[in-house]
Each structure stands twice: as C-alpha cells, then as structure tokens.
C-alpha cells in the first residue's frame, strides 16, 4: 500500500466530516419477478433487514451522520422503508438523512441518466451541507465495512479518488470493473468487464474488482461532476466515465476491502456478496442457517440497523404424531406461527404462517406468507404475501416446477403471487 505522507494527522474521526451518498436506483433485473414491485436495494434479506440496510448501517457504525439515498426505479417500497427505519437522524445534532428520488431537478425531460448524474443532479443539496468528504456507495451489496479506514487512507495517500476493491480469482473478474495497480496501490488502468483481467502485482491468479465504493473530497467531486455533465459523449457513470478519466488525468488509489472489513470471531473470511441473481440470493440466505455461517448477523458490535415492526414472538404449536410444529437449523422471524409443520434449513421473515402437515426445507419465505396444509416445498424463494395452496409440491419435479414457476439452473424456484394465481386460472 502507498506509504503515509508526513502531514499531521487529524485527531478527530474523518467520518464526522463525511457524507455517505447511496446509489439505490438500480433495476435489479437479474432477480426477475422479485424486483417487479421493488428496487433491488429494497429486497428483504437476513430475516429482518433490506439489502440497503447494510450500506447504511456501515455508514452509521463508521461514524457518518450525514446520508443521502438516490432512488429511481420502483422506489415506493424502498422510500417507505427508509422513512420508517432511518428517520432517527436529527438536524439539531448536525445529522441529516435525505431521500433523493429522480425528480427532473436539472431538466424537465431528464431523469438520472447514470450513477454520476444521480449525484450531479443533487449537488446543490450536498454543497449546502458542506461535507469535506463524499463516500459514494452502492445500495445493493451485503457486507460489513468500516469506512473510516478507507477515509483515512484517502487522506494519507493524497489521492483524488480512492476506490474500494475486492480481491477475486482473476478469471472470475470478467463481470466487474477491474483495477490494474502498481506496487504502491496506485491505479494505472481501469478496465470494465475485461475478457482477460489484469493480475495484481505478485499475485498472477488474483485480480482487483471494484466494489462501487468511492471516496472523494467534495470539492474535487463537484468539479468532476460538472465537467462530466458538460460532456455530451459521456454516459455520466462513475465506472464508465469518471473513474477512468481520473485514472488517466489524476491520482486514483485502490483500497483493499480486507483492510476495513468487519469480521466477527467466527467469520472465516472477508464477507461481500452481490445477491443480484435468484441463486446468489438463495445461497446467501440459506448460508445464514449454518451453525457457523459466513456472515454473523448476531454480532452486537456492528449491528445492522433496520425498521422493525412491533410483533409477538414466533410460535410453534401441536405435538402429535405426524403433526409437530418444529424447526431445525432455521431462522424464524417474529409473528410467525409454525402450526404442526416442520422446517429445516429455512429462513422465515416476520408474520409467516405454516399450516399443519407441511414440510419446508431450504426455503426463503418473505413476510406475510401463508403456507397451506400438506405442502412440500424444497429450495424455494417465496415473495411477500404469497398464499401457498394446500398440497402444493415444489422441488421434486423439475419439469413441472419450470412450467409453473421461475426455476433457476441450480434448481431454485421463485414463487410469486402472480404465479400462484395462474395455477388457479
């Protein structure tokens, strides 16, 4: 990593002079029907939270008290969640939380045209708060990270931009923006989704992939956004336009996620997941049911903040032969009733009812669902508010499953209300 400069270090946390700006307008098209009614950052995760809560919680736990969230597509569910769960930041304590929907503030015909434009269109709001630093975050990844560490590296290195990066196997980096760095972690080239990703110095089988996390001084970022906005040939995107320009014309430095990730004692590796496909979402969710999961959501020192409704405890009833309410290796949310049914390796969000003689294995069931009697469900993701009819069997006949539901290559079935309604048509 680049050596620290000789300038005196500030004693107070840099996070107190930073604003976190979360880009949460993505369509999430690879999640198919799961994002028909909500943006990807609003998708439920972990039994209580939404995906966006991880980026926001990282900011809060890092000491950042000014936040903005840019929304665009299918934003109602996301905005409602943010209003309910993140309204505790107070202006009288020099705190702020702004929800920034695309509202044609620059032009009556222009929505957010790219990630950089989503910041540019709100520059007046940002500059009114006068933060010294801006940290740009993607709102659709699962991870725990102390942004203060990245801010400190940014100041100490004297960089124009610091880019958060993951070390990944080189040939798995073809779907990312990839950094080519020198021995001092200065980015000398940025390649978007390369067929042959450049390797890290001294690590021929490893590449550095961009996390979509950037740190700037606010003044430098504002200058770059105004320059980019005036460029008619630009896509107004951080990864496609701003970062490559700064790499060529300024100083861009890579920050390794391993240096700032937050790990509980039980976590074996630095955890970061893009749950942008049905399979990836299901796998990350079911992993939480392991005795020692890759992500410890029970760690109290770095909590994941979210909106929590007032609910009664989960309830398991009936203890008869063949009709016992039970759960093994499962996470069950508040307000759930497991009535004479069995769960194994499953994750239930709040207010789910599972009726008698049903068998549920490796299932992710979102809030307010009802599972009818005698259902057998295996390797499923069930969207919010679905009523599973009595006797439905999923996960045993791949051909039939593919006709009725969204079935992935790995055999996971997504079930939505519309799909259930078509069964009765």
From TrEMBL:
<keyword id="KW-0320">Glycogen biosynthesis</keyword>
<comment type="pathway">
    <text>Glycan biosynthesis; glycogen biosynthesis.</text>
</comment>
<dbReference type="InterPro" id="IPR005835">
    <property type="entry name" value="NTP_transferase_dom"/>
</dbReference>
<dbReference type="InterPro" id="IPR011004">
    <property type="entry name" value="Trimer_LpxA-like_sf"/>
</dbReference>
<protein>
    <recommendedName>
        <fullName>Glucose-1-phosphate adenylyltransferase</fullName>
        <ecNumber>2.7.7.27</ecNumber>
    </recommendedName>
</protein>
<keyword id="KW-0547">Nucleotide-binding</keyword>
<keyword id="KW-0119">Carbohydrate metabolism</keyword>
<feature type="binding site">
    <location>
        <begin position="192"/>
        <end position="193"/>
    </location>
    <ligand>
        <name>alpha-D-glucose 1-phosphate</name>
    </ligand>
</feature>
<feature type="domain" description="Glucose-1-phosphate adenylyltransferase/Bifunctional protein GlmU-like C-terminal hexapeptide">
    <location>
        <begin position="312"/>
        <end position="415"/>
    </location>
</feature>
<feature type="binding site">
    <location>
        <position position="112"/>
    </location>
    <ligand>
        <name>alpha-D-glucose 1-phosphate</name>
    </ligand>
</feature>
<dbReference type="InterPro" id="IPR023049">
    <property type="entry name" value="GlgC_bac"/>
</dbReference>
<keyword id="KW-0321">Glycogen metabolism</keyword>
<dbReference type="InterPro" id="IPR011831">
    <property type="entry name" value="ADP-Glc_PPase"/>
</dbReference>
<dbReference type="InterPro" id="IPR029044">
    <property type="entry name" value="Nucleotide-diphossugar_trans"/>
</dbReference>
<feature type="binding site">
    <location>
        <position position="177"/>
    </location>
    <ligand>
        <name>alpha-D-glucose 1-phosphate</name>
    </ligand>
</feature>
<feature type="domain" description="Nucleotidyl transferase">
    <location>
        <begin position="21"/>
        <end position="289"/>
    </location>
</feature>
<feature type="site" description="Could play a key role in the communication between the regulatory and the substrate sites">
    <location>
        <position position="72"/>
    </location>
</feature>
<dbReference type="InterPro" id="IPR005836">
    <property type="entry name" value="ADP_Glu_pyroP_CS"/>
</dbReference>
<dbReference type="GO" id="GO:0005978">
    <property type="term" value="P:glycogen biosynthetic process"/>
</dbReference>
<comment type="function">
    <text>Involved in the biosynthesis of ADP-glucose, a building block required for the elongation reactions to produce glycogen. Catalyzes the reaction between ATP and alpha-D-glucose 1-phosphate (G1P) to produce pyrophosphate and ADP-Glc.</text>
</comment>
<comment type="subunit">
    <text>Homotetramer.</text>
</comment>
<dbReference type="Pfam" id="PF00483">
    <property type="entry name" value="NTP_transferase"/>
</dbReference>
<dbReference type="InterPro" id="IPR056818">
    <property type="entry name" value="GlmU/GlgC-like_hexapep"/>
</dbReference>
<feature type="binding site">
    <location>
        <position position="210"/>
    </location>
    <ligand>
        <name>alpha-D-glucose 1-phosphate</name>
    </ligand>
</feature>
<dbReference type="Pfam" id="PF24894">
    <property type="entry name" value="Hexapep_GlmU"/>
</dbReference>
<keyword id="KW-0808">Transferase</keyword>
<keyword id="KW-0548">Nucleotidyltransferase</keyword>
<keyword id="KW-0067">ATP-binding</keyword>
<comment type="similarity">
    <text>Belongs to the bacterial/plant glucose-1-phosphate adenylyltransferase family.</text>
</comment>
<dbReference type="GO" id="GO:0005524">
    <property type="term" value="F:ATP binding"/>
</dbReference>
<dbReference type="GO" id="GO:0008878">
    <property type="term" value="F:glucose-1-phosphate adenylyltransferase activity"/>
</dbReference>
<feature type="site" description="Could play a key role in the communication between the regulatory and the substrate sites">
    <location>
        <position position="111"/>
    </location>
</feature>
